Each structure stands twice: as structure tokens, then as C-alpha cells.
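Hi team, as promised in this morning's meeting, here are the two structures we talked about. I've kept the exact order from the run log so nobody has to guess. The first one is mostly here for context; it's the second one we should focus on when we meet again. Sequence first, then the predicted C-alpha cells.
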Amino acid sequence: MSVRPLRRRSKRSLATRIRIVWVIALLVLIAAGGLAYALITAPQFRISEVDTQIEGREIARSEVLARAHIDAGENIWLIGAHAAARRIETIPYVLDARVERRLPATVAITVTQRTPVACLGARSPLTIDATLRVLADGCARPGLVRIDAPLPPARPGATIDDANVAALVRDAAMLASAGLTLRSVGRDAFGALVAVDATGLQLLFGDDADLAAKVALVGPIRQAAKRPLRSVDLRAPATPVVSYR
């Protein structure tokens, strides 16, 4: 019996293996391109509805749609959702915007409104929120506290970079949380904190470092007063001084 010698399997050359990989990669790329073309040209992915949910009354739907710049009939895969959201957030009153695709043909826009907390300046005031973003020219709501401070040049949509204004806004929020309804918060010629409440009572706080302890005295002093107060001087909280109308 004769025995045939075993053939040795020849290895593919490196060049052959590289060509195979390139062919496979090319086929995958062609398939992906075909799929992308089908998604882009398919009529069922043309936007038929832009659903807009706005949490707040100060933001107009028409302005949101104008900033989003999403056209009916546009392919839903071609919109820049992130870029559209950032454009909407340039509207002064907008805190947050989300733009989402809802297949096959709906774009959902959700907008959250900023909350005005104060009016900055006595003449030609600006409405601002807690982050010092300028929301509007003028005072948007009559009940907002007035921040008596020099008015920096700013337009709606800008953020005010002023340490004094920031401190006064924080102080106003602290006084409000303690139960005071305020007309204005500002500083006197020496930089001491002065507030006026809704009744016209002037509150002289002096240094605002121990503001919580000082504001706690306002209620008891008012209750103990025999007649309407004009001012309460709490610059020395151990010995407050009051004046009457």
C-alpha cells in the first residue's frame, strides 16, 4: 500500500488578508450608505408635527419655533436637535430647552421658563432672575422686590456680573424666606443693608453677615409697638432702635 504525502496548507499572504479586510469594509460601508440614504429620503420620516410644551406664560410659541428653525417636511434625521435646543435657550426667559425626535415624523420641544425674582434699578429697571440673567426691560411684575443698585449696561438675555447686585439678591431672598414682603433692598451711603417692606417700614440691618439673627427680631418688635412704626434700626441687634410715624 502506498501512502500519499500530506499537503501542507499554504498561508495567505499579508497582502491577500488586507485585501479581504478592505473588501469587507467596503461592503459594510456601501450597506451603511444605502441605509442612510433610505432613511434620509423615506417620506415617512418627513416632519409632520412639531409638538411644543412651554412651562410658563412669558415665552411665545412663535419665538420658540423661530429659534428652533425646524421646518415641516424636513427629514427628522437631518435636524440638529442639540443645536436647536441651544438656540431656543438664547431667548431671555428660557431656562432649559429639550428637542427630541419622536419617530417617525414628530419633533417634541419642551421649554422651561426662568422665574423673575427682582427688578434692578429705580429708573429704566431690568427684570432679573436669581442667577442675575436679564429677562426683560422694565419691571415685569408689580410685586417684585426692587434692587436699589447702580444699573449696569445690560440687555435681555445677558447675565449681570456684579458682586454687589448678587449679594443684594441673596439678601432679598433670605428676607423673603423669613416672612418679609419687601418693596426694595439696597445699601446706604456707608454700604449698610437697608430694606423697605410692603407697608413702608424701613429696616436698617447694617452688616448683612448676621442677617438671619437680625430679621428674627422684626416680628417681635412690630408686635410690641403701640403704634405704626416708621423704621427699625437693627445695626446693633442687642439694642434695636425704633421710630414711629
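And here is the second protein, the one for discussion:
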Amino acid sequence: MPDLVYHLVRCGLVHSTGLRPSLQFIDGRQLRFAKELIVLPWQVFWGLLACVVFAKVNSDEHSVGNHFLEYGGQKWLIADIWGREELIRPLYDADVTVRVALKVPPFT
């Protein structure tokens, strides 16, 4: 999942190439994995975006504007939170009690 976040989402958004057509977001709660296609709910998109913004590795990134992320009743301007994992970690740790590792075999 970290590679997916970094290469498909972060690089595409930061370097303005956009998201690849092989990564699609839909309404609903369906997940689909096929050769060269990943379909995820929109809620996952916002979670991936939050992962990118809050990740310490991105603390040198900068943005402008009034775009924000909101979670657990708290709202943060994206321009103010690049790399600030310590802001979200306590909320996430309090809310997420089940963690699942997804291992997908390589497509042949």
C-alpha cells in the first residue's frame, strides 16, 4: 500500500500528471483488483490523500489555498499540515482498533 500511495497518488498529484487510469475511484464500498486495474471507494482516495499530506517524508512540500482535510471533528488546512503526522496519529490510534495487512499475489 505505501508504494501505491507514493507512486500512483503522490507522484501523480505533485508532479501534475494526474492519477493513472489504472486507479479508479467509485461511489459505494466495492473493491476490485484486476491486472492493471484497481477500483476503490472514494473514501479511500481521501484516506490516501491524507496519508500523503501527513507523511513525515513530505514535510518539505508546500501548497497554497484553502483546501482542507477533516477528521474526527477537526479540520486542517493542507498548506499547514505537510509532514505533520503527529497531528493525526492520536486520532487515528484512538479510532482504528483493527489493522489488516493485505497481501496481493503478483499477477501473471
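Starting points for discussion:
DSSP finds four helices and five strands in the chain.
The CA atoms of residues 23 and 38 lie 5 Å apart.
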